């Protein structure tokens, strides 16, 4: 028999979904083009990895702090402050004429980048234990929709501007400003006033975090969140660079690839994850996510080096030269560590292979994060949900900070295959470890 607690209250979730979707539109516009933008300014693979690490390193500081503040002062004001920081970061990125400004833009965005942490806490406020995975999955669906529309907007803007990477950055700033206005005038506070959360939030932040880690199942899940993100973060950060060097795909082509990934994410998180979580539970979804990511990463690593049919090396080099000179006033040459493929041997094999690899990778990524976070919230004290999700986000940020540097080094020293192949193998190891250490709720309760 279905009870009210079994159904997600979509009317309550809708404003948050729309706000997060608009906010993520800005992010998904720039994700596909960031490595290529840096390449146009003369960055090497290692330096691109360091740029990729700047945002999560800053978020490592800002995420838990903002999550804790949202437990005490409410989700809405903290979300507004976070979105304003993102808006400023995108503006600086649009005006960047050097790699130093590029770093500064990512630093500011990262320090205030608690948008998702606070949104996850608001979802927890607005759902029951039975509907939480579906609610958190809808945030992922918002991300997926962003991955459909954001890269499309980036690709169109690049095509119309002749490959000027500043244009997508300014468009991202516009969407970020829109999210600030929506949060200010439409989003209603979800944190109960004067309840347990307000009292709990008055306790020192580090005390609440230490207690969360000491909870056995929460500690295991947080460790798993960190470990899988160390691997998957490199995949996200280096994918555009991989497709550039392996298949000769420029910003527009990478935008189309991210649209394909976004469609899969939306299908999984917007339609299926709620059904799957009720039928199989978060534990089995975690197993499935790890296994599918392992398969997807290994398939990506061995993508045949066959340039896309439309690839033209001379034209791509000219595109980078135009974009670099437009941003800084002078032309930059591509780093010697980023080798473009030759024009010979073009065909469809490499692209089709990569598209197949994206299917298990996208499905695995779509179900894994919301399943882990949902299970974390079920074992967290009511008054510390925002703080614990902030800790989860901080560990993801730490992983994202370590991985681009490590992955960029592997990319530069051992070639494009190494980061993805090693990541796929390690993800398989995590799958085996999860089978042993991630217990079902009733099993965890029995051994507590």
Entry keywords:
448 residues; Growth Hormone, Chain: A; 17 helices; 79% helix; disordered C terminus
Structure in a nutshell:
The chain is mostly helical.
Topology, element by element:
Elements: H1 10-30, H2 34-40, H3 45-73, H4 75-95, H5 99-111, H6 115-125, H7 132-161, H8 166-185, H9 196-201, H10 205-214, H11 216-247, H12 251-301, H13 313-328, H14 349-378, H15 385-414, H16 417-437, H17 441-447
Helix pairs in contact: 1-6, 1-7, 1-8, 2-13, 3-4, 3-5, 3-15, 4-5, 4-6, 4-8, 6-7, 6-15, 7-12, 7-14, 11-12, 11-14, 11-15, 11-16, 12-14, 12-16
**What's the mean pLDDT score?**
78
Query: pLDDT below 50 for ≥5 consecutive residues: which ranges?
Result: 194-202, 441-448
Distance from N terminus to C terminus (CA atoms, Å) equals 30 Å
Note the total helix count: 17
> Would you state the CATH class?
Mainly Alpha
Question: Quick one: how many beta strands?
Answer: 0
The SS-based structural class is mainly alpha
**Percent in strands:** under 5%
The SSE order reads: HHHHHHHHHHHHHHHHH
Helical amount among residues, as a percent range?
Answer: over 70%
Query: What's the CATH topology label?
Result: Growth Hormone, Chain: A
The backbone outline, from C-alpha atoms, is globular
The CATH architecture classification is Up-down Bundle
- Fourth-level CATH superfamily: MFS general substrate transporter like domains
Q: Could you tell me the radius of gyration in angstroms?
A: 21 Å
Domain module tally: 1
Q: Biggest sheet, in brief? A: none
